Amino acid sequence: MTTPGRGPGVEDRSDRWCVVGAGPAGLATAKNLGDADIPYDVVDRHDSPGGVWRYGEPGSTVYASTTMISSRRLIEFRGFAMPADWRDYPTHREALSYLVAYADHFRITPNLELGRGVASVRRCDDGWLVVLSDGTQRLYRGIVLATGHHWDPRSPDHPGTFDGTVLHSGDYRTPAMLAGLRVLVVGGGNSGSDIAVESARIADRTFQSLRHGYHYLPKYFWGKPIDEILAAMERWRFPAGVRRLVCSFISRAAFGDPSSFGLPRPSRRMLEGRVVLNSELVHQVASGAVTPKPGVSRLDGRQVHFDDGTVEDVDVIVHATGFHASVGVDDGGLGLGTTMHLHLVDERHDGVFYAGHIQPSGGTWQLFDDQGAIIAKIIASCSRDGRPSKPVRAVLAAYGPSDYLPPEAGRRGDPLRVDLYRYAALLRRLVRELSADDGLRRDVAP
After folding, report:
1. What is the arrangement of strands in the sheet containing 296-301, beginning at the earlier edge strand?
2. What is the pTM of this model?
3. For 233-307, where are the E strands, in sequence order?
4. For the segment 83-97, what is each residue's pLDDT rounded down to a tens digit?
5. Count of CB atoms within 10 A of residue 34's CB?
6. Residue 353, beta-bridge partner list
7. Which of 1, 3, 32 is closest to 130 using CA atoms?
């Protein structure tokens, strides 16, 4: 069942596409739509572009010391290099200034509508009805959801009650929030490890709760950013076993055996599952500044009980436990975001695309650029109702989850996980295939 689209009070923008979100993925998509001469608007509820990189602004989840987890040469958009005198891992301030400059350079800024978000979307007979947060109603030909996935915090529901302060990593800003306190960081990914390291320098005690083990790599090795070494091995087609061997050697050379300091042993092999890029955590654990703990079994006032039967007095709990995967708009029960083919195209609803709803191990911005290029090529083929041409549908149907998902992707809570290098290769392949034949871009009746 569809909603009537045209009518009194509805702005007719059915010749345009609505990009929801002005973060890196939304800007990259807008750039590619502009390159293809496809009319678009970018709508974002915040007052400035940049998404989560707008430190200190509503909706931002970065903390004061946040740097990019990927080095600049592997994350900068193609055709728009970051300044050569920037550090290898740009700060959040540098990341934001780069995104703003990108929007200006590619003339995206005039198409930005900031300060009012998208409240709801509904399928119509002649497009998509988009209702903005100020009540404005617009009819668009289709929508691109680039709303990101670092805005809806996911926290564990531990039994019992806690009388201290509970934060999510998205609420954490500076270590001063933890000064002189007994701090428990729940979670061992990149954010959890960063916060545990910062806490160790200023808190009275720092504990880190880990339900399973991680592999750790330093951010630099032999003077090179570690992700450049990983990318070189991929580029030179090192077999997976050789890459695991090299990374295991680097980890052992940098840290020794982390389990000898109390960190749990990983259950997966190196490069299978998440790898934490942090040069300091293992050293802080080895020195006793961070105390590893198992999972939390229950809470009781200021006491935290752990799965091994130990109990610790804690003042602050920081949940570094990730975010829910959701698109952030009321879709009237359509289930947008739950059926994404290739994490790009909605499997059930024509005229709906996704950009940035992925979680690889690094290098996301270049992936966003390729996603935007593919979305633009698909849209160029669409019939009036937003349905891609038959040849384009055939190209997309030739690929599926087995072409880019890692082994752990089916695990509960990881719906956005993709294998960085396999997904990058798939996107580049799709760009080439969708560019190969002008016939793919014709409007073709279904």
Report:
1. 160-162, 296-301, 303-306, 311-313
2. 0.94
3. 275-277, 291-293, 296-301, 303-306
4. 999 999 999 999 999
5. 17
6. 144, 345
7. 3
